[in-house]
User: Fold this.
Amino acid sequence: MKPLIVVCTDFSPCSEIAVQRAAEIANRDQTRVFLIHAFDPKKMKGPAARAPTERDRKGWDEDSMHQLKDARHRYFGHLEDTDVQYDAIPSAHPSIEICKIAKETKASLIVVGSHGRTGVLRRLLGSVAEATVRHAPCSVFVVREEAEPLA
Assistant:
């Protein structure tokens, strides 16, 4: 059986880069891919900043699946349909779901983007990438947004 890469996206520019890198690896190494969007529905806002309703959540799920399907075709169109799975997963702790899927599927690699937040901002927002690295059952490739030169 071919190895499997779990790649995570929140549809941000940073995670687009992570999906691109995962596609490059999958193409080079002929691996299978599980593309996921794990998100915390409690952190999302409904219209006019009200608490989200079940209808809002259903719409987000449908939108997520549409975006995942689009990403699948854009980045992994060269792979067989059986080689690419995708799913949207509502979770209070996306990193837990990412690690759970990696363990269940016996993934050989997780690819995740990192916005590179540090200090107070990271403590307030948390870091899915950092938590994934700490708890992953396999290697994790953390893809950063384009960094500015040091000097």
